[in-house]
Amino acid sequence: MADPRPIGVFDSGVGGLTVLREILRRLPAESTIYFGDNARAPYGTRSDEEVRAFSQECLDVLVERDVKGIVVACNTSTAVALGDFRRRYDVPILGVIRPGASAAVLATRSRRVGVIATPATVRSHAYFTAIKDENPAVEVYEHATPAYVPMVEAGRLSGPDVEATVADGLAPLLGSRDETGEFVFPLPPSARIDTLLLGCTHYPLLRPAIAAVVGEQVAIVDSATATASALAELLSVNALEAPAEEAASGRHVQLTTGDVDGFAVLARRLFGGSFASIEALELRRVAS
Q1: Which of 14, 41, 73, 74 is catalytic?
Q2: 64, exposed or middle or buried, with CB in 10 Å at 0-12, 13-18, 19+?
Q3: Domain residues of the chain, as ranges?
Q4: What is the pTM of this model?
Q5: How far is Cα 275 from Cα 268, in angstroms, rounded to an integer?
Q6: Catalytic residue at 58?
Q7: Which of 48, 62, 208, 247 sits CB 3.0–4.6 Å from 8 for a disulfide?
């Protein structure tokens, strides 16, 4: 039986819009409610207890709005508390780590995958575990890049300073450049990655800068497309798909705890237009 209720999509800020974009491409009939907790981003440098508390407060809002399922489009929240969410809420909940790990395993040729993510996600080793579950033979090199999310939240996606910050963040995985611009690898050839997994949904917004640093020989993988595919399967298995007559007519609402104008600017970069409904929402819990 068809279900016209919206899908909830949650992220600590604007990064989850990259996942929302893929969901709308894959499932144009579905309605969505996106909730970005921009006022308290980034989550990746917070304690696990704060991440869990803030995330649950946001998911409570989505559940109160009668969503039929939730995509936790925040890698940090997925890594820290996905199991808690599934026990707390009586709706299907999908994270982004397992789909992203599966995509990286399919992409690698040398079975050496680098993962960049927030400190909390790296601390959890959630990607390491998920990739090893997919293929124990894959070598996984995790590295925290805490400077990336604040840049994205501030709308800084290009320019010399962004390129320098991106290069600095990737240096432990790729090496440093010499005077000719070539990488000097501190790792032996047996440890050089051929696939880079963007373990934060904010990072695809920096993809041009990241691609310029890693070069053509390293495949870049993010979880957005794989998550949209997993969501389509979840809706089908649970008979939650939108009515066929609503094809290409889904309704979409965006909620943010931060600045609406700033949110709209980044949303337009992704979707090429303006959203009709962006609502500011103030939560009870105050960030420390």
Answers
A1: 74
A2: exposed
A3: 7-95+225-280, 98-223
A4: 0.89
A5: 8
A6: no
A7: 62
Indicate the SS3 state at residue 108: coil
Q: Report which residue type is found at 172.
A: P
Q: What is the pLDDT of residues 9-64, one digit of tens each?
A: 999 999 999 999 999 999 999 999 999 999 999 999 999 999 999 999 999 999 99
pLDDT tens-place string over residues 202-222: 999 999 999 999 988 899 999
For the cut 90, the answer to whether the pLDDT of residue 92 exceeds it is: yes
Amino acid type, 189: P
Q: Which amino acid is at 226?
A: A
Strand extents, DSSP E, the chain: 7-11, 32-36, 69-72, 93-94, 112-117, 139-144, 176-177, 183-184, 195-198, 219-222, 252-256, 278-280
Kindly state the greatest CA–CA separation across the chain.
Answer: 63
* CB half-sphere exposure, 58, CA atoms < 13 A: 34
pLDDT value, residue 187: 53
Q: Distances from the Cα of 183 to the Cαs of 168, 172, 174, 195, in angstroms?
A: 12, 11, 7, 16
Query: Right CATH number for 98-223 from 3.40.50.1860, 3.30.70.330, 3.40.50.12780, 3.90.1150.10?
Result: 3.40.50.1860
- Catalytic residue, chosen from 200, 206, 209, 230, is 200
Q: Which CATH architecture has domain 7-95+225-280?
A: 3-Layer(aba) Sandwich (3.40)
Tokens of 286: 């105050």
